[in-house]
């Protein structure tokens, strides 16, 4: 039977394997593995790619977020506004003892609904995390005025949005991560820009945040063995930075291919769309989407997922449960029904295979099976 994986890292590694091995070899023969020339060079190149002053390599996307929050002045007991569906983001808030203050999402973009932010702000609120979910920017044009009005920091969660762009105010197009007080990246192996393990990056134009994150990522050390603030160990390592330096050169090309795949899906998923039983992702007028995930929605999601599985097609669900319905977040005191759009998204979202090495033939096969599942003119309710 034909199979199409939802993601396959090995295909990318096959294409650039020799370059990667050369880079890894160089690090091994150099003998320096922590905070050496590769991390420094990658920080510089990534900052320049994004068009931002500073970048600091850290151990993961979660750490990038929690260190940025701390550097921005958020501490234990403070409230942080974030979307109710972005499951991985929440742990960066709880890790520092802060409280996630959840807000429902816009059903078209799956990103935080800016019109619902005001109601969630209290005297304890210190920051808003704008998550750019699935590769499309949250609408910072509508989020920023709330932050300005209440003196809140904006931390951008760009873990799924490497290279994505936003048209912000009169400043034109900018890369995500460069608009708020800090931008936070993950280089987890499935990401648009990924390493061979865990890794992350904080980017910022704010010199104070930059200095603090640098201190916090290594024991709070101003210089070796002189610790001035209580930091921790959260460093991007040399091997991962060397891998990322190789891959950064391909990021734009890979994102273009993701956009091509998205266009193909949009054109080819016909029957189902006509019957309005599957909704394909759109691109907001202020955003340039990089399709980290190709997230469709359908009321028949679970049946469609099983059908595709039987046809050898892998899919994902991001995410099956909103944060407030996870047992570990019960203490926040929310209940079912509090965030209806996030809850509905969790029941309807399905991520189709979408990665640069996917062939047109594979995308067409996925589409033809979706069209068979939703035969034209008929309802399979
Ligand atoms: C939106 C979002 N935020 C944060 C994270 C956390 O990143 P990491 O897994 O590198 O800690 C992820 C990664 O899964 C993510 O997708």
Automatic annotation (TrEMBL):
A biological-process GO annotation: polysaccharide biosynthetic process
Keywords per UniProt: Pyridoxal phosphate
Ion transport listed as a keyword: no
UniProt-recorded Gene Ontology molecular function terms: pyridoxal phosphate binding; transaminase activity
Keyword flag Protease: no
Active site: 191
SUPFAM superfamilies per record: PLP-dependent transferases
InterPro entries membership: DegT/StrS_aminotransferase (IPR000653), PyrdxlP-dep_Trfase (IPR015424), PyrdxlP-dep_Trfase_major (IPR015421), PyrdxlP-dep_Trfase_small (IPR015422)
One Pfam family linked to the record: DegT_DnrJ_EryC1
Family: Belongs to the DegT/DnrJ/EryC1 family.
Protein name as catalogued: Erythromycin biosynthesis sensory transduction protein eryC1
Organism field: Candidatus Gottesmanbacteria bacterium RIFCSPHIGHO2_01_FULL_40_15
